[in-house]
C-alpha cells in the first residue's frame, strides 16, 4: 500500500456543497444498503412474515376450528383466515425492531456517529433521515409481502378464504405493514435514546411483549383503561377486522400508535441534540 | 482559522478543559501538544461541535461549527478513535459522507487515491489495520477540500513511510493557505512538522509559541564538568549569565559557558579536570520539564514488589 504524494486536485467541489434534507436522506440510504446486516435483517423479516403466514394458513386449512368456537377476542388470531395469514407479524416485529435498533446503536458502538454528526452538525436531520429511509423501505417491502402472503394464505384456505376486497381486509393487511414499519422506527428511537444495542433491544421487547402481559395482570378496571392504548395493542387494532369492546377502532388505534412513535422519536431527537456525541 | 475563547469543559466534578484561549491561524501547521489526558481530544471535539462547552466559545472560520451550511467545506477532521462503521467498505463510508453535502463521486475516488487505499476501498473497514484506518480517516477529512484540516494524533499506527507522508501532506496543505491543526503527544514529531505550538496540560494552556522559539528555549545546552576541585571550579565559573549546579560530589552541570571557556579558565587556574563534555537537552526532555506538573497519569515510584500504580484522578 503506497500513498500517493499530494495529488493535484482535479475535482472541484461545487460551491453549493451544502447539507440539504434530501442529501442527508441520500446519505442514509447509502448507509442502509451498504451494510450487510441491514439487508439480512430485512430479508429475515420478510421470510418470517411470509413463511409463518403461509404456515398458519396451512394449519387452519387442515384443522378448521369447530363451528361455534369463539375466536380469540380482538386482534388477528390464527383461527380466522385474515389472522392466520398475518400470523408472522408477532415474530417479524422483533426482527424489524432489532434492525431499527442496529441502524442507530450500531453507529454509536462503532464511533460512526461522530462522522455522521460532524457531516451534519444540526444533528436532527441524521435521525429523521434514518427514520425516513427505514420507514419507506420497510413499508414498500412489507406491504408487498403482506399482500402476497394474504393472497397465498387465502389460496391455501380455498373456499374458506376471504377476499382482499372484503370490508376492512385491505386496510388490515396494509395495517400490518404499517405496524411493522412503525416498530422499526420505535427500535431506532430506542437505539438513539439508549445508544446501546443490547439495552435498546431489551427495552423494545419489554415494551411490545412484556408490558402488555403485565398490564393484563392488573385489576380489570385498570387493565381495561390502559391496555388498548399500549403500542402493540393499538397497532393490533389497525390490522384486525373483528371489533371488540376492549380494542380501539382501527382509526383510533392508528392514531394512538403513531402518537407513540412521535413521542419516542421526539424524545430521541431532543436527546440527540442535547447530549455530547 | 479556529478561535478558542475561554473554553472550559467539565464532566461532573472532573475538569477536562479549563479556560483555554488560543487561535489557530491559516497558512501554517499548528501543533497541539500535551500529555495523554491533557484535554486535546476534548478540545477538538468541542471545535467540531460534538461536545458542548461548559463555558466559553469556539468558532471555525468565524462561526460556530453548527452554523455552517457546508460543514465539510469548512473543516475536515480525523478524530482520535475510529469514527467509521466496521461493517461498511471504505468507499461506501466515503460515499455516504460525501452524499450529505452533494460532493461528487469522483472526489471520493480522488481522496481514496490521495491516501493510497485504492486496492482495499471495497473491503470492510472493520478489517483495516490501525494505519489503514488512519488513512481512511484522513481521506474523509479531505473530502470537502476544507479550509481547515484538524487531525487528532494522525501518525498513530502509521509506518515510517506513512509518517513521512503525513508530514509532507500537512506542510503542503498549510502552504496552500489552509489552517492545519494537528495534535500529538510526541514533541519530536511536532518539532519536525509544526510551525507553531499550542501546549496544554491538565486542560490548561501552558505555551502558545512558535516552534523555533520553543526549540531555542529548550535547547539549553549544558556542560558537564568532573573535577576533584569542584568547589574551587564552581567559584571560578559562576557569573551573571552562568548557572552551575552540582549533583554528586565532584560533578558540575554548567550552563552559559562553552566547553572551551570552561577548559581555558580551569587551565588558567591550574585546576584538574577529569571530564568536560557537552550535554544536549532533547526536545522531549524539554517538553517533559514543561508539562511535568501537568501530567495526569504518572507512574508511581516502584518500591520492592509494589506494582507501579496510576494516580487516582
Give a structural overview.
The complex is a heterodimer of chains A (277) and B (313). Chain A has helices at residues 21-33, 36-62, 81-85, 89-110, 112-119, 124-157, 169-194, 197-215, 220-226, 231-238, 250-274. Chain A has 277 residues and is mainly α. Chain A has a domain at 92-148 and 160-274. Chain B has two domains: 2-217, P-loop containing nucleotide triphosphate hydrolases (Rossmann fold); 221-280, Alpha-Beta Plaits, CATH 3.30.70. In chain B, the strands form three sheets. A six-stranded mixed beta sheet of chain B has the order 5-6-7-3-8-9, sandwiched between helices. At the A-B interface, helix 1, helix 4 and helix 5 of A face helix 2, helix 3, helix 4, helix 5 and helix 6 of B. Chain B: It comes from Micromonospora lupini str. Lupac 08. Chain B: InterPro entries: AAA+_ATPase (IPR003593), ABC_transporter-like_ATP-bd (IPR003439), P-loop_NTPase (IPR027417).
Helix and strand arrangement:
The complex is a heterodimer of chains A (277) and B (313).
Chain A: H1 21-33, H2 36-62, H3 81-85, H4 89-110, H5 112-119, H6 124-157, H7 169-194, H8 197-215, H9 220-226, H10 231-238, H11 250-274
Helix pairs in contact in A: 1-6, 2-4, 2-6, 4-6, 4-7, 4-8, 6-7, 7-8, 7-11, 10-11
Chain B: E1 2-11, E2 14-24, E3 29-33, H1 40-47, E4 55-60, H2 71-74, E5 75-78, H3 90-99, H4 105-115, H5 130-142, E6 148-152, H6 160-175, E7 179-184, H7 187-193, E8 196-201, E9 204-210, H8 211-218, E10 222-226, H9 230-237, E11 243-245, E12 251-255, H10 259-269, E13 275-279, H11 283-291
Parallel strand pairs in B: 3-7, 3-8, 5-6, 6-7
Antiparallel strand pairs in B: 1-2, 1-4, 8-9, 10-12, 10-13, 11-12
Helix pairs in contact in B: 3-4, 4-5
Transmembrane segments (chain A): 39-62, 82-106, 127-152, 172-193, 200-218, 252-272
Keywords (chain A): Membrane, Transmembrane, Transmembrane helix
GO cellular component, one term (chain A): plasma membrane
